[in-house]
Amino acid sequence: MSRLKDNDMAYREITQPILESADKIVQTPEFNLDASIEHIAHWLPAQGAIKDFIHHDTLHAVQHYPFHEGVAVAAKIFGARSYLPLEDYQKMYRQGRVKNAAIDWAIDRAGCPKQKHEQLRATLFEQDNTGHYPAVSLANHGIRTAWLTQLEINLNALAHPVLFRLLGNFLDQGVSRWSLPKDGERFWDCIVRLATNSLLPLYPLNEPLVHELLAKNPDQVIKACLKEIVGDEQLYEQYLLEMPLAHPGWAGMVHVIECNPKAFLARREISLKEMIAVELAIELAFLHKKKGAHFPGIVKLPRPEGTPFLKNGALSPKIPLRLRVWHEAMEWSLHSELLLALKPHAAPVTKILPEAQALFCIDDRECSIRRYLEEINPAIETFGAAGFFGIDFLYQGLDDAYPVAQCPNIIVPKHLIKESAGKPKPDKKAKTDGLINMHFIAHSMWRGWLYTQTLGIGYAVRMAWNVFRPGSKLPGIRTLSEVESHSHLHLLRESDEPTEDGYLLGFSFPEMADRLGELLRNIGLTQNFAPLVVVVAHGSSSVNNPHFAAYNCGACSGKPGAPNARAFAWMANHESVRAILREHGIDIPDGTRFVAALHNTSRDEITYFDKHLLAQHPAPGLSAFQQAMKKALQRNARERCRWFELGPQSHSNAEAHEHVMQRASSIFEPRPEYNHSNNLYAIVGRRELTRDLFLDRGAFLHSAAHRLILNPLAPLEKRPYLLVQSWRLWNKCNRIFSWDVQHVNQRYFLL
Fold first, then answer.
1. What is the pLDDT of residue 320?
2. Are 13 and 321 in contact (CB under 8 A)?
3. Burial classification of residue 446, based on how many CB atoms lie within 10 Å of its CB (0-12 exposed, 13-18 middle, 19 or more buried)
4. Phi first, then psi: what are they for 515, rounded to 5°?
5. How far apart are alpha carbons 177 and 17 in whole angstroms?
6. How far, rounded to the nearest angstrom, does the alpha carbon of residue 90 sit from its chain's CA centroid?
7. Within 13 Å and on the Cβ side, how many CA atoms surround 668?
8. Is 600 helix (H, G, I), strand (E, B) or coil?
9. pLDDT at 365
10. How far from 633 is each of 246, 368, 604, CA to CA, in Å?
11. How many whole angstroms separate alpha carbon 307 and alpha carbon 304?
């Protein structure tokens, strides 16, 4: 019998068995379908369709484990690599990036007996000839692989296209001209209706066997299919888990919709059980089609030695000790390097009134722009806070069909802010003057064919032009992530009567003052206000980015933060709000003006909002700030180009800036920027700690009012700080967005 190949070098320090053979399956109680589906849902990603984005922990199923145990379990379920290859750690050691002291520290805390420390250290530098093998996992080496290895049937390739088309059409939110489900119709009922009433056969659900199954309910269909496909109740749950692991995105989204039907604007009634029933029926139909009615079930097919089984061992893997030591040593070296570079005891300087102050999002992409802005003009002081700037609301723009949340996903806003035109909008019919803006409201099969054969040629020519000339301005690109600067936000609540949905239209002055005061105190800006304070939100423009929401502001649920910046500036400029703040100890001088702006992080451009308000109340020093920001954006673009393979090789800031603008306008560039790919830390503290440090766009910088006392020479475990966070605890760091920092696991801050 063949044996699955595993990474023997990485996993040879065995403390308990990982994988057991088929003849050692533990006896279990009778199969419970509902309980099994509940267990399965635990392993699926909880990220639904990206309407409201948040930095989501895709390994939430193992977040209750200690870190190394959690990633080991995840590797055995999902088949992903948990650590860097051994040779990568060894290379960092040779480069001096991992220190000997760090290795000693990591070995001491690895749980290895003292007398074996030297032996363990010696194994760290052995050659690894099997590191390229992925971990044996349920997703990649489970019992379903027998279809391919034994019967030479790729069920995923056969069933998934059918299933995905059905799911996509059922969940469609308006892209299609016709809606597949009827009002209130469930997914299972919809599929049954299609399969039984369609004039054209719905392959493979038109098979006689499947027609008989569709007369039953999903529970009965699942059990009937499992009996024929698997044949052993002890393997039912594992088979049901391996199915969605082959398409975790679709399965996870279905489960999210099942738990929260309001996740979609056009409500859809669907459940994970219904999706599994349809998929099993499709698989059974293909098996009958390819192998006949008497095909052997999973239990009758031979399996390689080492096939993982859910019931015994798959969720109790051993931790690869050598990789754990290397990883701990790498992080220790990384954190020590930063802590030694921080400046907790900087020489005291006389506090002078800055020329301007700028409030940015904590996003790591703003880390470098803050550094350049301060470098170009040292009289500019910068702060960092979550990009919704403490003002949570639902926002409905001029052209929005529905309001969207402009706050972290975990906050439920109670206020609704609407945008209105500050000046009459041009007639929408004028938009049809150009070919690229044409849109036909009337749809029919005949008209669709006619337009495709005629006007479609023009669109194809225009697309080809955009591919070969990405520098040309594409219509509407700026409107993807920027709010029109001449519009008006209705921020002041005129009535306490809620809307039909229970929202309050706008804020009262005390509510405005509470939100502003809380944020200003958190970041330490309660006095010494500059004559100009610029509130800089961020968003991202691109033409061909399937993950568009992930490039905008996570604190604004994946939308640009422009409405929040505009709201903050308007509130801070209002005399009634300032009067309340003054009563609470925050005295904003009459000569201080707040200005809202938006940094387009893909194009490195900036837009300043509400110019009509600036005309009425000029902002002193705004022109000088704009000049400094322009230079900072060009330098920022050049720093970004270091990571782009097609970036300019010259040292010209202007060329670099032109390149990033072209990337954002290019139809063949799905990644106009690399977003958080370099993120390593979240640093909470005064700007003096990190000012002038080159962090390589790798840190979230949140300003804090309280001065933290650090001793870089003290042992790491004795340093009293809540400051540095590793990338590996991003799911814990998510809580920072809810300002619940005290609950973050401090053990990891002491690395």
1. 87
2. yes
3. exposed
4. -70, -45
5. 55
6. 31
7. 10
8. strand
9. 92
10. 43, 9, 6
11. 6
First to last CA, the chain: 46
Q: How many CA atoms lie within 13 A of 497 on its CB side?
A: 3
- What's the pLDDT at 17? 32
Residue 166 host element (H or E):
helix 155-171
Residue 372 main-chain phi, psi, to 5 deg: -70, -35
User: What does the pLDDT read at residue 30?
Assistant: 81
Phi, psi of 492 (to 5 degrees): -85, 125
CB 599 within 8 A of CB 626: no
- Enumerate long-range contacts of 509-513, CB under 8 Å, 24 or more apart: 509/574, 509/576, 509/577, 509/580, 510/580, 511/415, 512/571, 512/574, 512/577, 512/580, 513/571, 513/577, 513/580, 513/581, 513/584
pLDDT value, residue 63: 85
pLDDT per 10-residue tile (average), the chain, 751 residues = 49 35 46 93 82 70 88 89 90 94 93 90 88 81 93 95 95 83 93 89 86 92 95 94 94 92 85 97 94 92 87 75 93 88 66 89 94 95 95 90 87 92 56 43 62 76 70 47 64 92 94 96 93 95 74 88 95 97 95 95 92 83 95 95 87 92 83 82 88 89 68 39 34 30 29 25
Whole-angstrom Cα distance, residue 672 to residue 544? 9
Q: What's the length of the chain?
A: 751
Backbone angles phi, psi at 267, to 5 degrees: -60, 140
pLDDT score recorded for residue 202: 85
How many Cβ atoms sit within 10 Å of the Cβ of residue 141?
A: 24
What token pair was written down for 230? Answer: 């698997």
DSSP state of 182: P
Nearest to 33 by CA among 272, 310, 308: 272
Pairing outcome for strands 415-420 and 488-490: antiparallel
Report the pLDDT value the prediction gives residue 542, as an integer from 0 to 100.
80
Could you give the CA distance from residue 170 to residue 426 in angstroms, rounded to a whole number? 37
- H-helix or E-strand spanning residue 394: strand 394-396
User: In the numeric block, which tokens belong to residue 425?
Assistant: 């909008």
Burial class (CB in 10 A: 0-12, 13-18, 19+), 576: middle
Residue 404 φ/ψ, nearest 5 degrees: -130, 155
CB 250 within 8 A of CB 232: no
Half-sphere exposure of 521 (CA within 13 A, CB side): 11
Residue 717: other Cβ atoms inside 10 A: 10
Please name the residues in contact with 339: beta carbons below 8 A apart, sequence gap of 6 or more. Answer: 710, 712, 716, 719, 724
String of DSSP letters for 433-457:
GSGGG---S---HHHHHHHHHTHHH
Contact assessment for residue 683 and residue 724, using Cβ atoms and an 8 Å cutoff: yes
**DSSP secondary structure string for all residues of 719-741:** --------GGGHHHHGGGGGT-G
pTM over 0.85: no
Report helix angle 236-245 to 272-291, nearest 10.
Answer: 100
Between CA 53 and CA 559 the distance in angstroms is 8
φ, ψ of residue 364 to 5 degrees: the values are: -65, -20
pLDDT of residue 176: 78
Q: Which letter does DSSP use for residue 682 in this model?
A: E
Residues 716/336, Cβ–Cβ less than 8 Å: yes
What does the block give as tokens for 562?
Answer: 């422009």
Residue located via tokens 């496909």: 229
Strand duo 504-505 + 532-539: pairing: unpaired
Angle at 279 between CA 42 and CA 20, to 5 degrees: 55
Nearest to 380 by CA among 531, 598, 537, 573: 531
